């Protein structure tokens, strides 16, 4: 009903473009690191570029700010499902799974009472962003949506997430459902470490065929432009889109080049810039950083000449160095830097590390952690197998006494091996604080002295020759 002489002024629509431009002025925290490649200004409220295998953060913009993830939540849903159920399980869609989500929300049209395999449901979630599939999977895995949310929070905590709380499996808006760019990168790192999930998450188009429990024949297409080919980018491994009015555009993507596996997370952006932001950040990462193998480049903790601690094949079939780097460990550095530009911290706490680890070295470049490497025992053979002959324990006069030479060899080798290991460990400790006349060695000596003080050890500096 209208009132003469009065009018109601309509609320002005939010100017999302202006807000995006303002967000470009926000601080990029990674740019504060000395000699770190300068990262690009983007319109997202928060963004991160992280190397998965090392955990190195290459680009950081408000990475711990708590924001709404929208449908990127579904990556955690799929991860938990893959870890707790079989891909051939039949998932039945309950009435609540189908009808508890908005009709205008993302769905693929599955009706209550129908069923599909868990694997088909995951394609529905990752390719079609289907809310009803996420709900049905949650009920199948945990028994109820609430119980599944508990699983989500528990798994997120296990992955190291500290700024997240989840209340549903699909990411629909709820004030108590939030995460951060860093937390989402950790979740994505686990997701893309699963080969099947990576394949599902990189599917551009999927075909559902009719079955006895699902009668429709239809295709779904991925809206992620770096996956469906609308934006071409080499090395894409998969990703997930997201949108709600409150979250705005969100995007998670993984790509691999030159031995580096990068995850990019963009939160609170405007379309289509979530895709161009991602491509820009990937270019920044791949063009400005390099992967450096520690075993091939660092002679600081383990001498380059390890011949004293190496052997050819002996009678037990063992050969190699007694102490060595784990060959697969690498760090990430700017292309203008080398491992000599890093500082390092040694930890002898190897709890949770693979068997054979005796120390873990954490590398830092101007205060930024760029990866770790393990120092391990060189022998992979921890036991020996011999065929011993049984002999009668009773000895009669003039009877020859047989000595079990193999057993003696075993005993002697164990004792000798223990001595070698102690000597080797002593040499390793000595290598931490050796300094000669070389200026570089004296510089390293000071760093080692600092390390020894941290471990409350003392050592007399060698006299100059």
UniProtKB/TrEMBL annotation:
Signal peptide feature range: none
Cited InterPro entries:
Beta-lactam/transpept-like, Peptidase_S11, Peptidase_S11_N
Which Gene3D superfamilies does the entry mention?
DD-peptidase/beta-lactamase superfamily
Which SUPFAM superfamilies does this entry report, sorted A to Z?
beta-lactamase/transpeptidase-like
Specify which residues bind substrate according to the UniProt entry for this protein: 240
Task: Respond yes or no to whether keyword Transmembrane is given for this record.
Answer: yes
Active site, per annotation: 71 (acyl-ester intermediate), 74 (proton acceptor), 129
Task: Give any GO molecular function from the UniProt entry.
Answer: serine-type D-Ala-D-Ala carboxypeptidase activity
Q: Peptidase S11 D-alanyl-D-alanine carboxypeptidase A N-terminal domain: which residues?
A: 38-269
Q: Which domain of life is it from?
A: Bacteria
Q: Name one Pfam family in it.
A: Peptidase_S11
Instruction: From the record, give the transmembrane residue ranges.
Output: 407-429
Q: Which GO terms describe its biological process?
A: cell wall organization; peptidoglycan biosynthetic process; proteolysis; regulation of cell shape
Alphabetical UniProt keywords: Carboxypeptidase, Cell shape, Cell wall biogenesis/degradation, Hydrolase, Membrane, Peptidoglycan synthesis, Protease, Signal, Transmembrane, Transmembrane helix
* PANTHER family named in the record: D-ALANYL-D-ALANINE CARBOXYPEPTIDASE, D-ALANYL-D-ALANINE CARBOXYPEPTIDASE DACB
Which family, according to the similarity comment?
Belongs to the peptidase S11 family.
Name of protein? D-alanyl-D-alanine carboxypeptidase
Annotated source species: Butyrivibrio fibrisolvens
